[in-house]
Amino acid sequence: MDNIILEMRGITKTFPGVKALDNVSFKVREGEIHALVGENGAGKSTLMKVLSGVYPAGTYEGEIYYDGEVRSFSTIADSEEIGIIIIHQELALVPLLSIAENIFLGNEVATNGVIQWPQTFARTQELLKKVGLNESPATLITDIGVGKQQLVEIAKALSKKVRLLILDEPTASLNENDSDALLKLLMEFRKQGMTSIIISHKLNEIKKVADQITILRDGGTVETLDCHKEDISEDRIIKGMVGRALEDRYPPRVPNIGDTLLEVNNWNVFHQHHRDRQFLHDVSFKVRAGEVVGIAGLMGAGRTETAMSLFGRSWGHKITGEVTMRGKPVDVSTIPRAIKAGLAYVTEDRKQLGLVLINNIMHNTTLSNLSAVSSNGVIDERKEAKVASDYRSKLRIRSHSIYQEAVNLSGGNQQKVVLSKWLFTNPEVLILDEPTRGIDIGAKYEIYTIINQLAAEGKGILMISSEMPELLGTCDRIYVMNEGRIVAELSKEEASQESIMRAIMRSGEKH
Amino acid sequence: MVADTSTHTTKPSIGDYLRNNIREYGLLVALVIIMLFFQFVTDGVLFKPVNITNLVLQNSFIVIMALGMLLIIVAGHIDLSVGSIVAFIGAISAIMLVKWGLPAFVVIPACLVVGGIMGAAQGYWVAYQKIPSFIVTLAGMLVFRGLTYVVLGGRPIGPFPKEFQLLSTGFVPDFLSFLNVTPDLIKNMVALVAVLLLVGYALYAGLRNRRINERHGTENEPFIFFAIQMAVIGVVALFLGFQLATYRGLPNVLIVMGVLIALYTFITTRSTVGRRIYAMGGNEKAAKLSGINTERLTFYAFVNMGVLAALAGMIITARLNSATPKAGVGFELDVIAACFIGGASASGGVGKITGAVIGAFIMGVMNNGMSIMGIGIDYQQLIKGLVLLAAVFFDVYNKNKGKG
Questions:
Q1: Residue A97: count of CB within 10 angstroms of its CB
Q2: Closest A-chain CA to B1
Q3: What's the pTM?
Q4: Residue A386 phi, psi (nearest 5)
Q5: Residue ranges of the domains in chain B?
Q6: Topology of domain B19-170+251-403, CATH
Q7: How far is A355 from chain B (nearest CA, A)?
């Protein structure tokens, strides 16, 4: 167990104007699961890109020792050859090819360029068995869920005789069951002697599987913790990541709840693609002024679909139900009407659905409410700049100016730009869909603080989140959804991880 | 945090500024170099007053269509049908003017409306039925070309009445001639005065804008660049104005083109419609979820393109004084190339009117210069193709270098 398989020494990598890695050292023992943690921008992904040859030797300083020998990789193929395989956060699978074709893509089982399909399928079957995926090798990637796609990626890694498997945020888009299955698989591999490096924000998962934890901060190594020598708590890890002890992950708030703002009754929606399948059944809920209301549920419970169908019918069809704002029926049949009715929807996927990444902060901020900074269709640039500057300082968006492109911002700051955009429409109720997904702990705290401020100003907040502690820490009331239905409504006092899970499980038995 | 750069908001150096804006300056420099090159190799024919007038007349329709095409490309689409729209509009204008004897002041607006309808007919399928614009406009290209043959019966129609021809061959009359101060060399005082006023206004507006920016703390380009840019544009404009003044003055088309360039620059940089098109091209889903009616915007981008193509079609027909079924063949490629040379991105969301206009003129000067040199159409095409590739490679190269 004490055999060092990988050692990175004094790694320094600079980009124009930024030192992304500064003299980082990193040691991995053979046969362990080594967790790499740190806030966004701490340098985790950069370090792994150096290791896997995405940044070729020569573009960084320092040495990589693998099996005790100095190695330098100039391409990804070089690192793969000796068994270092990286699985990126954004999966590299071709959606319209089959599982088998994807696994052997670029590495086909072929003689003289002719693919040997029987062998390909047989070997795929073997690999799928190893990762516990019960699918036909001929199934297309697009037809299986993200969790299974992740397993296909791992099967692909296994096909390449992997010795050191690197997983970048493997569970970020997985639900709890799929995450558990994946972690179990990693532990199974560990028994067989394989080494893994796992990058993750989910500290509870890291606690579950990691043998050692290396913490990066601001491009440097902070420390490596050995989970077998001492009991490492989540707070201990967080302390290392942020450089200070975080007493409370959720800012305190005294709720001051007013009248009902948004009320939705008997919301029925059919599936966007499978048009005769009803997806949401009689969903009813309300959000009051100054109240933070959560929607808990597993992946696929219908939370995002509820929000999107409500917000200008952006999802689903045959939508029926009643929506009122302050007791009066409102028309939310198109997005402009929904905005006019006082709704704002912060999407779960800020890069694909929230921001125009190639546009600057200012243009993104005013996009939903251009009429407020223009007259007769002509934009008043000074006014626009002022609006953007105000939100930039109010929400503490870290950037060098309002003219910085959104693509160059960190996740937390991008999310703040999306929030700016919607705050500028002056909504009564904000629907926040996974508002802190993929952003670091410091920025999460800031987002919670903003949520609290908005509630204090009398806005209603409807928050969808897959992180139960986050819902429990911020919400006054939590609805639990499962299979397209609201299955429970819990007050702050009643709500706990157990009560939420119980509600989900019980409803699952009924239907 | 690495991403936190709020602590050092140092002023960008001149080098940084040049690197960030190399595209725009590079384009202008390229145009000037190409012009000087052809001036040299054609023994000064390029800048002769007659030839400059010709250059404007020959390229005006490409520039006009490039304005619409830029919006289409920024919106994330493409329009292959403009060459066929040009031909069809030429054909129906011939029918209306020559066969039916309708007056030009009726025919011109009617043709613009028909162009708009043709654009709408395509925009509908792209915007509301979500069929890729490449396919829709490829179909449009074939359909409109076919209709042109049907309408013309396969034969050219001409000649056109005088007042319609003025659209492309007319010049702004020299209403300052009565002053009788015109030196012998200058045949058209209006042209010279107009150019002087224009350059003066550009300088004034530029300086005023800088002052306002300073007051509001907005980033200005370094003064040296402003000065050089103004000097280059000023000298070139005055020179061209002078040359035009020694011939027949300002072509009507130049005025139309100038007004349209100004209008579309304004639309793309200052109007909400322009902003929304850029946002839509940058990320259609995000734009839609921000409350932008992306379908309607796409639809109108195609309507707009149709109208501009119709205008271009009338200018060409008036210039050739004949409507032929083969008019405008391959124009779509010149227009699209102008946009891409001008820095528009094929994936949408990026591109400038000034870029497209300069791109169109780069193509135009090359066409013109190579024709004067007597280079055959075969090599002309080859060279233009390579220039297009080089320009886009320059973009990609710069972008990758920026990433480090």
A1: 14
A2: A218
A3: 0.81
A4: -65, -45
A5: 19-170+251-403
A6: ABC transporter involved in vitamin B12 uptake, BtuC (1.10.3470)
A7: 6
